[in-house]
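Continuing the series of single-chain predictions for the mutant panel. This is the parent chain; the variants come on the following pages.
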Amino acid sequence: MPTRTTLELRARVRSGLRALFDADGFLEVDTPVLSAEVLPEAHIDPIAVFLEGVQQPPHYLQASPEALMKRLLAHGSGAIYQFAHAFRAGERGAQHDEEFVLLEWYAPGSTLSDTARLLERICREFLGTSGIDRVLCSQAFREHAGVDPLLASLPALQAAGHRAGLQLPESDADLPEAVAWDRWFEILLSDVVAPQLGRGRPTMLEAWPVSQAAFAKLSTDNPPSALRCELFVEGVEVANGWEEDTSRRVLHSRIAAANHLRATDGRGVLPLPQQLLHAHREDADREDRGCESFARLPTGAGMPEGTGVALGFDRLLMLAAGAASIDAVRCYNSRNA
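Parent structure:
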């Protein structure tokens, strides 16, 4: 694609998205790409930057603006969005790069039903689709992999994987059972289920297994599920989000679990994001415990209930252009910049 055409596409879609969010009452914000804190995630490696030499703790290029946007929410920002440059070490492929652009938004007081309506509008306006299919994880996995992940044991997931010709790497042979279960879920999703989703019409995959909750609230169903979603268009994951769990205690436990998985994989444990933790609510003990002044919330403040979504802007453009790679809709990537 010629340079001018690429720039026009990016500008046109970005302008259209801004108009959509502005009309819905969102406020555009910008947060730093470099922070002393990072949100630990099990399978995402941040890029460390040593501003004061290797003997001092590093800063981090942010893998998403999530942590900093949530701190704004805790201080009463209201509904916000931003186009953020995000950085993830070692991610390079047709749909990935070490640096890319996310459109991320947070809507206090909203639910996944509100998210579905907004995602449908985005896909209709910028991809020319009509409607959106809301599909439960259980339904999608039963149809495409022959197993229900909300009920399945590890042997059942393994059997489904073997039927599809899948194997985990030999290095995963001695994983704890819970970790192995997640590995099989993830490989079934990426290799078997996801490629079938969003064919002809966008699919919003919902009601995820609890172990895949990330920072989502859990449902009160039996069995419970995570109030999380991912949007697929023509087999491509375009967005993911959830109804936020606003509890400091829950966030702390989820981060601890992510760091445990990082240690299991030999990725290295990341420091706790203290300011983000203090932006979340706790029923008791709201002391600041040495955090910076910005983390000290006024009475009644804190992370609000609502939804947060991260949408891959480059992937949206790739689909809009009918391209096979995000590099086709960017002038620069991590190899030629």
